From TrEMBL:
It holds the Pfam family NAD_binding_10. This is Uncharacterized protein YbjT (DUF2867 family). Residues 6-175 form the NAD(P)-binding domain.
Length: 279
C-alpha cells in the first residue's frame, strides 16, 4: 500500500488519481478525515506531519510514501518511517534547490532533502519548477476584465502542469526509482506576456498584460498577507529572468514515456476558472 500526504493539493490529488488508475492500493493521511472527500477505494486516516504521535498508525502496513514537504516535523516522520519499515519515500521538493542561490524557499526544501537523504531510507526527489496553477492568481482579473497587471512581463519560466509532476512521482513510486532526483518543467519557456496571450487564445477573449511599478505590485501582495521576504524573493527572481529564456527539462517524457502537457492544454483543462461567474 502507498501513503499519500498532501492528498488534497494540486499535485497530491493527481498522485492519488493516477495511483488508483494504476491499480494501486492508496491510503491518504489528513488532519480531519471528515473534512474532505477522496475517490472511492481510498483509505483515509487521521494524521499530521507536524505531530509525530499520529504517524505510526498512519504508516502501519505502508511500503512506500509520497511525501508533501512540511518544513517542521520532518524528523518525526522519518523516525516513524524507519520504525514501521517504510521502503521508499518520493519527496515533493523544488527546482530551487538546484539554484546557485536557493533562497528562502529553496533552503527549506534543501533541509528536508538532506534530512531524508541522511535517514537511510530509499528516496526519490521530484523537483518541479513553477506550477502552471500559480497563474490561477490571474483568474479574478481575467474573469472581471481584459487586463492582467503585474511586473516583469518579459520574465520567462517553464511552468509545469501538476498532472505532470504527479506522473513523475507516480512512476518513481511504481518503478521504485530510488536515488534519483528529477527537475520537472513544462515543455516551453514562456514569458508572462506570452502566457496571458495563450490564455486569451484558448478561452477566446481579448486579454493583455499591463506592466505596473514594482513597488505598487509589492504593496498589493503585502495587503494580501504575503510575507515581505517571500515577496522580495519572488520579485527578485522574476527580475533575474527578465528577457531570458527559461531552461526546460526532459524529465517528464523520459520518466513517463509521453510529452508533458503544454500551457495551452493546461488552460483548456482549467478554462472555467478564467470565465466570468454565471449569474
Amino acid at each position: 500500500m502507498i501513503l499519500v500526504t498532501g492528498a488534497a493539493g494540486n499535485v497530491g490529488t493527481n498522485v492519488v488519481r493516477q495511483l488508483l488508475e494504476a491499480g494501486e492500493k492508496v491510503r491518504v493521511m489528513t488532519r480531519d478525515p471528515g473534512d474532505r472527500s477522496f475517490p472511492d477505494g481510498v483509505e483515509v486516516v487521521a494524521g499530521d506531519l507536524t505531530r509525530s504521535e499520529t504517524l505510526a498508525a498512519a504508516l502501519s502496513g505502508i511500503e512506500q510514501a509520497f511525501l508533501f514537504p512540511v518544513f517542521t516535523g520532518i524528523g518525526g516522520f522519518l523516525d516513524a518511517a524507519r520504525q514501521t519499515g517504510l521502503r521508499h519515500v518520493v519527496l515533493l521538493s523544488s527546482s530551487a534547490v538546484t539554484f546557485s542561490t536557493p533562497g528562502l524557499i529553496g533552503e527549506q526544501h534543501l533541509q528536508v532533502e538532506r534530512a531524508l537523504a541522511a535517514s537511510g531510507l530509499p528516496w526519490t526527489f521530484v523537483r518541479p519548477d513553477a506550477f502552471m496553477t500559480n497563474d490561477l492568481a490571474w483568474a479574478p482579473q481575467i474573469a472581471g476584465g481584459e487586463v492582467v497587471r503585474g511586473v516583469y512581463g518579459n520574465a520567462a519560466l517553464a511552468p509545469v502542469d501538476p498532472r505532470d509532476i504527479a506522473a513523475v512521482a507516480v512512476r518513481a513510486l511504481l518503478d521504485q526509482r530510488a536515488g534519483e532526483a528529477y527537475v520537472v518543467t513544462g515543455p516551453q519557456s514562456l514569458t508572462q506576456i506570452e502566457r496571458v496571450r495563450i490564455i486569451a487564445e484558448t478561452i477566446g477573449r481579448p486579454l493583455r498584460f499591463e506592466e505596473v511599478p514594482r513597488e505598487q505590485f509589492r504593496e498589493q501582495l503585502l495587503r494580501h498577507g504575503m510575507p515581505a521576504p517571500v515577496i522580495d524573493e519572488l520579485l527578485d527572481g522574476l527580475a533575474s529572468r527578465d528577457g531570458k529564456t527559461a531552461e526546460t527539462s526532459p524529465a517528464v517524457e523520459e520518466v513517463t514515456g509521453r510529452p508533458p502537457f503544454t500551457y495551452a492544454q493546461w488552460v483548456a483543462h482549467n478554462a472555467t476558472a478564467f470565465l466570468p461567474a454565471q449569474t
